[in-house]
Amino acid sequence: MRALIYHGPGQRSWEETPDPRLAEATDAIVRVDAVTICGTDLHILKGDVPAVRPGTILGHEAVGTVTATGSSVTTVKPGDRVLVSCISACGRCRYCRTGMFGQCLGGGGWILGHRVNGTQAEYVRVPFADTSTHLLPEGVSDEAALMLADILPTAYEVGVLNGRVRPGDTVAVVGAGPIGLAAITTAQLFTPSHIIAVDPAPARLEAAKRLGADVVVGAGDDPAAAIAELTGGLGADVTIEAVGIPETFELCTRLVRPGGHVANVGVHGRPAILHLEDLWIRNLTITTGLVDTYSTPALLDMIAAGRLDPTGFITHRFAMNDMAAAYETFADPKSTGALKVVLSRP
């Protein structure tokens, strides 16, 4: 088969490599029918994730067809269409038994494209197949389901639910990339009064308006003034950080009102200053987190029922063999306008 292999910082290639084989009784082999690229993959290529060893197949999001299963797998069988989750779960450890699959102690968590070979390939071995794949209902497209592999549950769980968005809230989302847009989309499930998107890129602000933001704040605008005007000077009830740099985290702590919530979703590569000398008196709640994907079944039901359509995040489509072009497009959103790219089997 062919796969996208990491060869060290700045080095990747779409090349021939042996097909995966069942290694454990709990494994499944999945033929990848659609796959996407995540910002985390770009972090890996920059050398920001040293746990990823050269020779690893990248990717942790896919939709595909099961071709083989281990002897212990009972919930999926060859021929089934499945979503491959970005988080693998042993299903038995202390954390899995409480729904904290991202913290799995039994060999799961974020492992695909990280500690084991991932999904940017023609076939992938999926550990713990019973608890790490989701059967796809009839009528749910590969592209729609693919958005549930990572960005929708991440934004929903770590941003909207951890931030405790409630009806009537004012919600400010700082960063209108794929995760920020997914937070805007899923925040609407709780009928907030206002959703404000903050981002310097005009194309991303256009996408934010299309996907449900009421107010957008671009480069040169003052987000604090815009939010103060909407809230009588109080500030946002919830701010969601969806970039992962110190400046945007600190901005979120300034935009939130006393008693509000700051939900950090972005992956930070540098330390951010926590100004406790200013924040302690404001009764703030600050949360962080890795997605657990416990919400995936509910989000999948919403798609099947026609209540949620995440295909609006997709801006570019490629054949799977065009992996190099897809990476170049995704890595240069300023000139390409890329949000999510989808690569499909011919």
The helix content is 25-40%
Beta-sheet strand percentage? 15-25%
The DSSP helix count reads: 12
> What name does CATH use for the topology of the largest domain?
Quinone Oxidoreductase, Chain A, domain 1
Q: Which second-level CATH architecture of the largest domain applies?
A: Alpha-Beta Complex
Structural class: alpha/beta
Succession of helices and strands = EEEHEEEHEHHEHEHEHEHEHEHEHHE
Query: Overall 3D geometry?
Result: globular
Most strands sheet: 7 strands, mixed
Domains, number: 2
Description of the molecule:
It is a single chain. With 346 residues, the protein is an alpha/beta fold. The protein is 26% helix and 23% strand. It contains 12 helices and 15 strands. The strands form 3 sheets. Strands 3, 4, 5, 6, 7, 14 and 15 form a 7-stranded mixed beta sheet that branches. It has a 6-stranded parallel beta sheet with strand order 10-9-8-11-12-13, sandwiched between helices. Helix 4 crosses helix 5. It is globular, with a radius of gyration of 20 Å. The mean pLDDT is 97.
